[in-house]
Amino acid sequence: MKLKRSLLSTLVAAACGLGATAAQAQISDGVVKIGVMNDMSGLYADVSGPGAVVAAKMAIEDFGAAKKGLKVEVVSADHQNKPDVGSTIARTWYDADKVDAIFDVPTSSVALAINQLTREKGKAFINSGAASSDLTGKACSPNTVHWTYDTWMLANGTGSAIVKTGGDTWFFLTADYAFGHALERDTAAAVTKGGGKVLGAVRTPFPGTDFSSFLLQAQASKAKVIGLANAGGDTINSIKQAAEFGIVKGGQNLAGMLMFITDVNSLGLNIAQGLIFTTTFYWDLNDQTRAWTKRFAAGSGGKYPTMVQAGVYASVLHYLKAVEAIKSDDGTKVVAEMKKLPTDDPLFGKGMIRADGRKIHPAYLVEVKKPSESKGPWDYLKVRTTIPADQAFRPIDQGDCPLVAKK
Predict the structure, then answer these.
(1) Residue 15 has pLDDT above 60, yes or no
(2) What is the pLDDT of residues 326-341, one digit of tens each?
(3) pLDDT over 60 at 358, yes or no
(4) By the 8 A CB rule, do 392 and 184 touch?
(5) 196 and 163 in contact (C-beta within 8 Å)?
(6) Phi and psi for 44 in degrees, rounded to 5?
(7) Using 50, 70 and 90 to split pLDDT, how confident is the model at 274?
């Protein structure tokens, strides 16, 4: 009898072991490998950069990968804001380094290139840093999720709000690459829809340092609003140089179409006060965002997180939930599962991912505080309006995404 029991126990243990092995075998190489690609040292380093890697590692820890027996590794690289560099890195990651998913990727021209390559390779691309709404429009892919924000959201948040308050004539300073073009296009559409008029636009080199001649053209246009269709260091330099020319004092207003808390920190409240922009994350929204930010700052030299870095955290967390659910890191299957699972994390709350790959959550129209209103370091913003999730992003039937069935 003892022999039979012993044999039965052995068989049961063996069967369990085989089940665990079979489940693990669906994870390629036994490792889920995540690549965080962004600008590590240039124009967008503060917006994304090393902080995005910190955020990704926090997500892996909070997911409890080690306790669940899931081996997850993170690699990172600097794409230098160049599509050819980004494509080379991605191809090497996918083919030689067995990377399963690429995250972040600011700079829309790079993101669009990675978007196409990822589809060809059957991997997963979860974007947080790029803005072009084309990622969920004409360039949408079954292998891509666009998480944090996009040009349609920025245009219809900031642009529409400014037109409603009397800023009905615009002139654009536009970064001359995919992101800038898309942001100008979407904002101009929002301005016109609201009854405003675009008086002109000028394309600026990317990246740029001297915006003097472009700002003088904008000043001469007499437009009420100068829309800055740029980001990061370009936005900071534009605003600083506009102050030197006395453009705001002369009666024109600046609209930072894409701004981050790190931009406000670089400018200082004396220069940035009163600026209005749209974001999907702010560290001081609630107890959960404040607690997470405290941990993030401890791991990033005291810097506070941007919405891009918050998006990397939330998207890695949801990606790992999908991998766990289907016991596979096959990119196409994981993205499909990410769309099936409702999203829920401490930074963006409850949400969903649509068929076109667009992640849906609220957005916030914020205003930069006056120095007298700030209570301490990084206390820079006040929320003027919360834009509900179902209104924050472009309606799914308006993006021309081939993945969306025509009605």
Answers:
(1) no
(2) 999 999 999 999 999 9
(3) yes
(4) no
(5) yes
(6) -110, 20
(7) confident
Between 285 and 406, the higher pLDDT residue: 285
pTM of the model: 0.89
In a domain, 40, yes or no: yes
Between CA 146 and CA 108, with CA 396 as vertex, the angle to 5 degrees is: 30
Instruction: Say whether both 368 and 337 belong to one domain.
Output: no
Residue type, 83: P
How many structural domains compose the chain?
2
Residue 86: partners with Cβ closer than 8 Å, 6 or more residues away: 37, 79, 105, 107, 110, 113, 114
**Six-digit token pair at 314?**
């939330």
Please answer whether residues 183 and 209 qualify as being in contact, where contact means their C-beta atoms are separated by less than 8 angstroms: no
Distance separating alpha carbons of residues 407 and 405, to the nearest angstrom: 6
- Give the whole-number percent of the chain exceeding pLDDT 70: 93
Shared domain for 240 and 323, answered yes or no, is no
Closest to 198 in 3D by CA, of 154, 159, 153: 159
Torsion of CA 282, 288, 290, 295, to 10 degrees: -110
